[in-house]
Design goal:
This protein is mainly beta. It is built from 2 helices and 6 strands. The protein has one domain: Electron Transport, Fmn-binding Protein, Chain A (Pnp Oxidase, Chain A, Roll).
Length: 122
Protein backbone atom coordinates (compact mmCIF):
# COMPACT_ATOMS: atom_id res chain seq x y z
CA UNK A 1 0.00 0.00 0.00
CA UNK A 2 2.50 2.56 -1.15
CA UNK A 3 1.73 6.11 -0.23
CA UNK A 4 -1.35 5.72 2.02
CA UNK A 5 -1.53 6.71 5.67
CA UNK A 6 -3.45 4.66 8.24
CA UNK A 7 -6.22 7.31 8.26
CA UNK A 8 -6.50 7.19 4.46
CA UNK A 9 -6.73 3.40 4.45
CA UNK A 10 -9.41 3.54 7.17
CA UNK A 11 -11.36 6.06 5.08
CA UNK A 12 -11.13 3.84 1.99
CA UNK A 13 -12.07 0.70 3.93
CA UNK A 14 -15.15 2.48 5.27
CA UNK A 15 -16.28 3.31 1.74
CA UNK A 16 -15.76 7.05 2.00
CA UNK A 17 -19.30 7.62 3.23
CA UNK A 18 -20.66 7.00 -0.27
CA UNK A 19 -18.66 9.82 -1.86
CA UNK A 20 -18.45 9.87 -5.62
CA UNK A 21 -14.99 10.10 -7.16
CA UNK A 22 -13.66 11.84 -10.24
CA UNK A 23 -11.07 10.09 -12.39
CA UNK A 24 -8.65 11.93 -14.66
CA UNK A 25 -6.99 10.10 -17.56
CA UNK A 26 -4.88 11.21 -20.51
CA UNK A 27 -6.85 11.19 -23.76
CA UNK A 28 -5.60 10.26 -27.23
CA UNK A 29 -4.40 13.81 -27.88
CA UNK A 30 -2.47 14.06 -24.61
CA UNK A 31 -5.10 16.19 -22.85
CA UNK A 32 -6.88 15.55 -19.56
CA UNK A 33 -10.30 13.90 -19.39
CA UNK A 34 -12.22 13.82 -16.11
CA UNK A 35 -15.27 11.64 -15.40
CA UNK A 36 -17.24 10.68 -12.28
CA UNK A 37 -16.77 7.06 -11.19
CA UNK A 38 -17.91 4.68 -8.51
CA UNK A 39 -15.20 3.11 -6.37
CA UNK A 40 -14.37 0.55 -3.71
CA UNK A 41 -11.21 -0.37 -1.83
CA UNK A 42 -9.56 -3.79 -2.32
CA UNK A 43 -7.73 -4.39 0.93
CA UNK A 44 -6.01 -7.54 -0.31
CA UNK A 45 -4.41 -5.86 -3.33
CA UNK A 46 -4.10 -2.38 -1.80
CA UNK A 47 -5.79 -0.74 -4.78
CA UNK A 48 -8.82 1.45 -5.46
CA UNK A 49 -11.24 -0.38 -7.76
CA UNK A 50 -12.97 2.01 -10.16
CA UNK A 51 -16.21 0.75 -11.61
CA UNK A 52 -19.36 1.86 -13.30
CA UNK A 53 -21.46 0.75 -16.25
CA UNK A 54 -19.62 -1.09 -18.99
CA UNK A 55 -16.22 0.27 -17.99
CA UNK A 56 -14.40 -1.70 -20.75
CA UNK A 57 -16.53 0.16 -23.31
CA UNK A 58 -15.60 3.63 -22.06
CA UNK A 59 -13.13 6.23 -23.25
CA UNK A 60 -11.26 6.02 -19.94
CA UNK A 61 -10.62 2.30 -20.56
CA UNK A 62 -9.23 3.08 -24.02
CA UNK A 63 -7.12 5.96 -22.68
CA UNK A 64 -5.46 3.68 -20.15
CA UNK A 65 -4.31 1.32 -22.91
CA UNK A 66 -2.04 4.11 -24.17
CA UNK A 67 -1.29 6.00 -20.92
CA UNK A 68 -1.71 3.66 -17.91
CA UNK A 69 -1.68 6.43 -15.30
CA UNK A 70 -4.53 8.26 -13.63
CA UNK A 71 -5.46 10.72 -10.91
CA UNK A 72 -8.48 10.33 -8.63
CA UNK A 73 -10.25 12.83 -6.38
CA UNK A 74 -12.72 11.78 -3.70
CA UNK A 75 -14.01 14.82 -1.83
CA UNK A 76 -16.88 16.49 -0.10
CA UNK A 77 -17.95 18.83 2.67
CA UNK A 78 -18.78 17.63 6.16
CA UNK A 79 -20.55 19.18 9.06
CA UNK A 80 -23.61 21.35 9.41
CA UNK A 81 -21.74 24.21 11.06
CA UNK A 82 -20.11 25.84 8.07
CA UNK A 83 -17.52 25.04 5.48
CA UNK A 84 -15.48 21.91 6.31
CA UNK A 85 -14.14 20.50 3.04
CA UNK A 86 -12.25 17.21 2.90
CA UNK A 87 -10.45 15.42 0.08
CA UNK A 88 -8.37 12.41 -0.87
CA UNK A 89 -6.22 12.88 -3.99
CA UNK A 90 -4.52 9.81 -5.46
CA UNK A 91 -2.20 9.46 -8.43
CA UNK A 92 -0.63 6.29 -9.72
CA UNK A 93 -0.49 3.43 -12.16
CA UNK A 94 -3.90 2.43 -13.51
CA UNK A 95 -4.45 -1.17 -14.52
CA UNK A 96 -7.29 -2.41 -16.72
CA UNK A 97 -8.66 -5.54 -15.01
CA UNK A 98 -10.44 -7.52 -17.72
CA UNK A 99 -11.80 -10.10 -15.26
CA UNK A 100 -13.57 -7.51 -13.11
CA UNK A 101 -14.33 -5.12 -15.93
CA UNK A 102 -12.87 -2.39 -13.72
CA UNK A 103 -9.82 -0.17 -13.36
CA UNK A 104 -7.39 -0.77 -10.50
CA UNK A 105 -5.63 2.38 -9.30
CA UNK A 106 -2.34 1.70 -7.50
CA UNK A 107 -1.78 4.58 -5.02
CA UNK A 108 1.67 6.08 -5.53
CA UNK A 109 1.26 9.78 -4.69
CA UNK A 110 -1.41 10.60 -2.14
CA UNK A 111 -2.57 13.81 -0.47
CA UNK A 112 -5.51 14.24 1.89
CA UNK A 113 -7.01 16.65 4.38
CA UNK A 114 -9.99 16.75 6.71
CA UNK A 115 -11.14 13.18 5.98
CA UNK A 116 -14.33 12.25 7.80
CA UNK A 117 -13.70 9.73 10.57
CA UNK A 118 -14.49 6.12 9.74
CA UNK A 119 -17.54 4.67 11.51
CA UNK A 120 -16.71 2.84 14.74
CA UNK A 121 -17.53 -0.59 13.27
CA UNK A 122 -14.70 -0.39 10.70
Amino acid sequence: MTGLSAAEVAFLRAGGRGALARLATVDGEGGPRVVPVGWTWDDELGVIVLGGRNVPGTARWRHLARHPVAALTIDGVQGDDGWAPWALLVRGRAERDERRGAILLHPERVTSWGLPPAPADH
